[in-house]
Design brief:
Blueprint lengths: L13 H17 L3 H7 L4 H9 L6 H11 L3 H16 L21 H32 L3 E2 L12 E2 L22 E8 L2 E8 L4 E7 L6 E6 L4 E5 L10 E2 L3 E2 L6 E7 L2 E4 L19
């Protein structure tokens, strides 16, 4: 059984944390220990431990090696690495260009006018500063996990969401919302050759179902005690051997959610979520 990962450093940039979360999940799915991973790559066991604990940014070739070992599309992981490296190195924090204001023309001093205008200018500057601080607080409260991305050109790309919590996660994609960073499987079920998991992120307070080795026509759901559910149907013949996730539902308690599989008019469900992760057998291909 794979030991639970320790939490990533709170100071880690979201782009870096998301990359590390993806690498952790690939490593777990592959079934490779750190020692075996070191044996199959040019990087030592202690190096991989640093990379996967967030204390060091993995080199680009290490990310490529792990992608190839686990059957993950290399281009996707390298794109995540580029974004993470930009934040790690500080290239993402490019200051905006500024233009110097022209020097004012010298005019004869007017002591009376100067003494009257100085307090007004001071009050105006103070008002602008306070207003800016208030706006910043409002934005931070309204969008606590929305941060700018970095385009390859170095410009700021459109904003993207790196997290959610509770009902904010409803119908969201677990990987796109970065809820996979701390996720684990808290219930599972095997139906013939199909493996069904209940995935829960305590950080996001959200749950989703994940299934592998499906059959065409299968319907997979994550559902809570009140009947709230997110469901996917398997219709693509090219994906039965991959991991397929549902969208998320809110999950403030593990014991209030479970995953279900409907096949040929029969419904099979995992137990309600437990307090401890279950062992996940390795697989080589996934979609979330």
């Amino acid at each position: 059984m794979t030991a639970p990962w320790r939490p990533l450093p709170a100071s880690l940039a979201p782009e870096v944390a998301y990359l590390v979360g993806q690498l952790r999940e690939l490593k777990d799915r592959s079934g490779l220990s750190l020692a075996k991973l070191a044996a199959k790559t040019p990087y030592s066991k202690s190096s991989w431990e640093r990379y996967l604990n967030g204390s060091a940014l993995p080199p680009r070739p290490a990310v490529k090696d792990l992608a190839q070992l686990t059957g993950e599309p290399v281009e996707r992981l390298l794109a995540l690495w580029e974004r993470a490296e930009a934040r790690w190195s500080g290239r993402a924090a490019v200051p905006l260009p500024t233009t110097a204001e022209p020097e004012p023309r010298s005019t004869p001093a007017d002591p009376k006018r100067d003494s009257l205008s100085r307090p007004r200018r001071h009050n105006l500057v103070l008002t602008i500063a306070v207003t800016g601080a208030v706006i910043a607080v409002i934005v931070a409260l309204a969008f606590p996990r929305v941060l700018p991305g970095v385009a390859p050109s170095g410009r700021t790309a459109p904003t993207y969401t790196v997290g959610c919590r509770g009902t904010q996660c409803t119908a969201g994609d677990a990987q796109g919302m970065a809820c996979g960073l701390d996720a684990a499987s808290f219930a599972d079920l095997q139906v013939d050759g199909t493996y069904l998991e209940l995935r829960i992120s305590d950080q996001c307070q959200a749950a989703w179902a994940r299934v592998s080795h499906t059959a065409i026509g299968d319907r997979v759901s994550v559902v809570d005690e009140r009947g709230q559910a997110e469901t996917i149907s398997v219709s693509d013949p090219t994906v039965p051997d991959t991991y397929l996730p549902t969208r998320m539902i809110a999950a403030d308690q593990h014991s209030h959610v479970r995953a279900c599989l409907e096949r040929t008019e029969e419904r099979h469900c995992t137990p309600w979520g437990s307090g401890h992760p279950v062992h996940v057998p390795p697989t080589t291909t996934h979609r979330g």
